[in-house]
Amino acid sequence: MPYLIQTADNIFVQIGQGCSSVSFLLLPALKKYYTPNGDQDDLISIGTIGLIKGVSTFKPDKKVRLATYASRCIENEILMYFRSQRKLQGELSLSDSLDSDGENGSLSLIDVVRVDDNMLEELDLRDACAKVRRCVSTCLTGREAHIIRLRYGLGGQAPLTQREIASLCGISRSYVSRIEKKALEKLRDEYEKP
Predict the structure, then answer these.
(1) Closest CA to 47 of 36, 32, 66, 60
(2) For residue 56, which of 69, 41, 75, 44 has the smallest C-alpha distance?
(3) Which of 27, 74, 75, 148 is geometrically suited to a Cys-Cys bond with 50, CB 3.0 to 4.6 A?
């Protein structure tokens, strides 16, 4: 067992020194996963991490050669790297550089993307709509509330014209107009109360 520890330590030293006797484990995986557009330094670093993990977790009592086990660890590490890159493929950072003018000035995504932060306006609008619906339910008569809901689409359906409401309710369009005007005055008074 001390020989194995010494061997693992020697391999770690050789990895640190960039020894060519260790690179024979990395080369097959690097050739297998070589991509012309990828950064080969990243693959070498990731393969080295896999090699270190393989050496540090190797158990000789499993009757597997160190080279076989380490090469499998190297491949697994490279595959995990590719999976993580695929997950990040569609993501952008607002600080990603789009262009550089050469004088330490760069154009980033946050400089060109307009941010509409209208959350407060949306909250105010939602509160105002809830208050209007509450006022329609509490301060209007049944007929007034029905006509206002139809006219402005407060029940989730599309708003109707006065003529459509008149034919639906069996009353004249001018009567719908008078009811609507009276109901809107009541709603304004109720809405403006503190």
Answers:
(1) 32
(2) 69
(3) 74
- Please give the helix or strand (H or E) that residue 97 lies within, else none: strand 97-100
Token pair for residue 167?
Answer: 């034919």
DSSP H/E element including 70:
helix 66-88
pLDDT at 165 exceeding the cut of 70: yes
Q: Residue 76 in contact with residue 50, Cβ under 8 Å?
A: yes
Q: Band the pLDDT of 82: cuts 50, 70, 90.
A: confident
Task: In whole angstroms, give the CA distance from residue 48 to residue 16.
Answer: 10
pTM attached to this predicted model:
0.40
Residue type, 55: V
Report the range out of 17-26, 30-39, 51-60 with the highest average pLDDT.
Answer: 51-60
Contact 35, 81 (CB under 8 A): no
Query: Would you state the structure tokens that stand for residue 103, as one six-digit string?
Result: 């004088």
The CA distance from 70 to 24, in Å, is: 11
